[in-house]
């Protein structure tokens, strides 16, 4: 997956500029974004804070690790059952 130019914290900071009263045209000019990108980010990150994004990222990593552990244990279990069935 392609890594973007902006971190999630930077994206949230850019989105918060709109709450301070700046127009979208002013906001996107400085970092060199398109308005479409701004609105896509707004739909994805609306109402989130940096702390929430950090926690979400941590939970996604933990979920990935747990899914991998489950897959490994399931594969081991299936192999053991296959060996016992052959005997």
Automatic annotation (TrEMBL):
Question: Do you know which InterPro entries this protein is assigned to?
Answer: Homeodomain-like_sf, Transposase_8, Transposase_8_domain
Q: Which Gene3D superfamilies match?
A: Homeodomain-like
Any coiled-coil regions, as ranges: 49-76
Keywords annotated in UniProt: Coiled coil
- Superkingdom of the source? Bacteria
The answer to whether the entry has keyword Coiled coil is yes
Fetch the Pfam families from UniProt: HTH_Tnp_1
Q: What is the protein's name according to its record? A: Transposase
Recorded source organism is Hymenobacter glacieicola
* Gene for this chain: trp1400A
């Amino acid at each position: 997956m392609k890594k973007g130019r902006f971190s999630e914290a930077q994206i949230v900071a850019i989105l918060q500029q709109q709450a301070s009263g700046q127009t979208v045209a002013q906001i996107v000019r400085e970092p060199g974004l398109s308005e479409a990108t701004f609105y896509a980010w707004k739909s994805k990150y609306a109402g989130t804070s940096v702390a929430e994004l950090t926690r979400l990222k941590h939970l996604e990593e933990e979920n990935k690790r747990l899914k991998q552990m489950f897959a490994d244990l399931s594969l081991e279990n299936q192999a053991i059952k296959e060996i016992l069935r052959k005997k």
